[in-house]
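Cross-check.
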Amino acid sequence: MRLFIAIQLSEEMRASLTGTVQRLKKAGVRGRYAAAQNLHLTLAFLGETAAGEGLASVEQALREAAFPAFPLELSGLGNFGDLPWAGLKDSPGLEAAVREVRGALDRAGIRYDRKKFVPHITLLRNMNGNGDWKSVQPPRGQMTVRRISLMNSELRDGRRVYTELMSVKAHDRADKCESTEGRPMGMSVREPKGE
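Predicted model, tokenized:
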């Protein structure tokens, strides 16, 4: 399993980002664009993790992460080389949630990519073409983060599919954790795990 911990975006925020993607395409920017349903904010990338005990350890660590709900607001465009992204305004709540999630992983001895956290939402990979991405109007939007999700990334028919495995609500602990039973990213959760 290829795991990461992320914030799933509201429909309104996804719509704004999708509008920016359309503007990038019209501006002649080429590359592998992220599918609208795959747009997310990664808090920690774990990579390949064994199912069974490995997955259970990650789930338990995430259950230990406690965070209050916090605002998230889009802010500008940027890039890491050939990877353009939408940025986010500084958010003490987001920084605290990242520290909490990564701290829980550290305490559980779970390995993850320890690069400095730079809040961004990847719009496309392998950018090429003659288009000027810097001239494109950046997305606007905001939302309140009320849960953090454990996600699995897999390749199906040549496309990346992200599936939410479980989520933790703001201020929740182990008894409030939700399982989405492998539903595709963006689908709502109805029943808490174990009930």
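The first helix runs from residue 11 to 26. The two ends are 25 Å apart (CA to CA). Passed to J.P. for a second look.
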